[in-house]
Amino acid sequence: MIKRVLISLLLAFNLSVNAEEVDPFEETNRSIYEFNESLDSNVLEPVSRAYKNNIPEAAQKGIGNFLGNLADVSTLANQILQFKPIESAETLARILVNTTIGLGGLFDVASDMGLITEDEDFGQTMAVWGVEQGPYVVLPLLGPSTVRDGIGTYVDLTSPANMVGEIDEVGVSVINVVDKRVDLLPITDILDQSDDPYITMRSSYLQKRNNDIYDGNVPVTDDDF
């Protein structure tokens, strides 16, 4: 545990020291970050807090389960592309169980059965294929990313795995944004206490993505020390 904390601190220090290399577009990124923050503060955060405080918890859980079941389809596609047969089989079983017994995903029966999966996206898939992450960028509306993850996000959003059939895709997308924003409310409170929320966001994002790509087993090299 202590080792992980030390590694995280050292990675954060390394990211701040090499800011010019990691974030060569910082001036532009900060402008987009401010735009996103303004939109978030005036629209997304108030809506998300109202949703959290006024929608029954059971309904919120059902909506979250439904959206999670849709996300599992995208995860399955990326697990197949990453040549993860065991994980793919478990995710497929999870989708089948939640879609049938779980009434279209409203109930997460699969988790109760021990069928758990970790989210996978096309940015992670490209990393497995050896594509470099590229510079850190802040995307309008979408937030922190890298060149590689930005391309991955576009592919994920336009993938057939994310098509919702006859369901209103715009409506589902809006609900998905609000649902995810509710999960991020505790992080918002932490960022508000930071001396420089932009740097905190950048460091946190890059560390999380590195952890995602290596499935929690980030290799430690002599350069980290």
Could you please describe the fold and organization of this structure?
Helices cover 68% and strands 4% of the residues. It has 225 residues and is mostly helical. Strand 1 and strand 2 (143-146) form a beta hairpin. The chain has eleven helices and two strands. Mean pLDDT is 83; it is low at 1-17. The two termini are 17 Å apart.
What attributes does this structure have?
single chain; 225 residues; mainly alpha; two-stranded antiparallel ribbon; 2 strands; disordered N terminus
Please render the helix and strand layout as text.
Elements: H1 2-17, H2 19-22, H3 26-54, H4 57-81, H5 85-100, H6 109-112, H7 122-128, E1 136-139, E2 143-146, H8 147-158, H9 169-183, H10 185-192, H11 197-213
Low-confidence stretches: 1-17
| Biggest pleated-sheet summary | 2 strands, antiparallel
Q: Which structural category do the helix and sheet elements fall into?
A: mainly alpha
Radius of gyration: 19 Å
Helical content, roughly? 55-70%
Write a brief caption for the model.
The protein contains eleven helices and two strands; from the N terminus they run H-H-H-H-H-H-H-E-E-H-H-H-H. The protein is mainly alpha-helical and 225 residues long.
